[in-house]
Specification:
A: alpha/beta, five-stranded mixed beta sheet, about 25% helix, B: about 170 residues, alpha+beta, 7 helices, about 15% strand
Chain lengths: ~160, ~170
């Protein structure tokens, strides 16, 4: 029985932990990223055109995210080998996690699993260094949400970039 | 999620800045979709005349397009002698040849002297390009080409006919 979809964790709530394959032989858990802001990017699929643009855009912005010491992580239901091929093809320099087995379990835990198509929704979460959700956004599945919301949320984190929220 | 944006003093524009229709494109000289959009916008500009102001801002996707950044910098070098738009057009009409040797050739063709070409090769215009890029990210640019009409991001069809229809609708408001 698949895990039933939970509600999206609201701002101020702890982000559900996960431990997913980042490569065919390595795993990444959310707790490993504690201490730095985390940008979670749930997306429907590797290779689909809109995702490609969205993931490609974030790949262009790694230096911007680095200014906040933030780690960006992509999550979809594609398998680790698929992610590896996609990352190699697009020269991606950030981890793509495989929410593959049990399928979509982490996406369900974040309330962003689209059961009818069996994929993650196009959803963004910005977590602070303590793993608390500070901002989230679900985009219509065909629309690339860009990065402005993410950067605004990173700006609003206390103690980051010298600005106050 | 995108913002409402306005022309800035250092924007490269064609047409009157106070036109009723202001179209801003964030583009990448190596992006094939931008190459297609180049022709669509040019035709729309010809149809609209002075009713349309068109501005171009840089959004080079450097990881995907290895020549895009340098091409953008060369267009800024050309801008210092008033030849931005000639370079913009040359680059879009020669998207298959944007290596540094080709860029240098286009620059000479437009009358950039060797010192200015060297300056472009040294990255002296990188900050100007980056300013456009960073601003674009903040403005909600989500890929290229990305169009803003009268300050608002436009995600619809952008062939000439669709643009002209859109311009008509916006102008009638």
């Amino acid at each position: 029985m698949p895990t039933p979809s939970a509600a999206m964790p609201a701002a101020g709530q702890p982000a559900p932990d996960f431990n997913l394959p980042a490569t065919p032989d390595q795993r990444l858990s959310l707790t490993q990223l504690r201490g730095k802001p985390v940008v979670l990017v749930f997306y429907p699929a590797d290779w689909s055109p809109v995702c490609g643009d969205q993931i490609g855009l974030y790949n262009e912005l790694l230096s911007e995210f680095a200014r906040y010491d933030a780690q960006i992580v992509g999550i979809s239901v594609d398998g680790a080998w698929c992610h590896a091929a996609f990352a190699r093809d697009r020269h991606l320099h950030f981890p793509l996690l495989a929410d593959f087995e049990p399928k979509g379990e982490v996406s369900r835990r974040y309330g962003v699993y689209e059961a009818s198509n069996g994929v993650s929704e196009r959803a963004l979460f910005v977590l602070d260094g303590e793993g608390i959700v500070r901002w989230s956004y679900v985009s219509p599945i065909g629309i690339n949400p860009g990065a402005d919301g993410i950067l605004d949320a990173l700006d609003a984190l206390p103690g980051k970039s010298g600005r106050t929220p | 999620m995108s913002r409402v944006i306005a022309l800035e003093a250092d924007d490269h524009v064609q047409g009157p800045r106070d036109a009723g229709l202001v179209l801003i494109e964030y583009g990448d000289f190596e992006c094939p979709y931008c190459g297609e959009e180049y022709a669509e916008i040019k035709a729309a500009q010809q149809a609209m005349g002075d009713a349309l102001c068109f501005a171009f801002r840089h959004f080079p996707l450097r990881q995907a397009h290895p020549h895009a950044e340098r091409a953008a910098e060369f267009s800024e070098a050309a801008a210092t002698i008033g030849r931005f738009w000639e370079m913009h057009d040359l680059l879009y009409e020669n998207q298959q040849a944007l290596d540094e040797r080709s860029l240098t050739g286009y620059a000479r063709q437009l009358g950039l002297d060797e010192a200015l070409i060297q300056s472009a090769m040294n990255g002296d215009f990188a900050a100007r390009v980056q300013k456009n890029f960073s601003g674009g990210v903040r403005n909600g640019v989500n890929g290229t080409p990305c169009l803003f009409l009268n300050g608002r991001r436009y995600d619809g069809a952008s062939d000439t006919a669709s643009l002209l229809q859109l311009f008509g609708e916006v102008a009638a408001r």
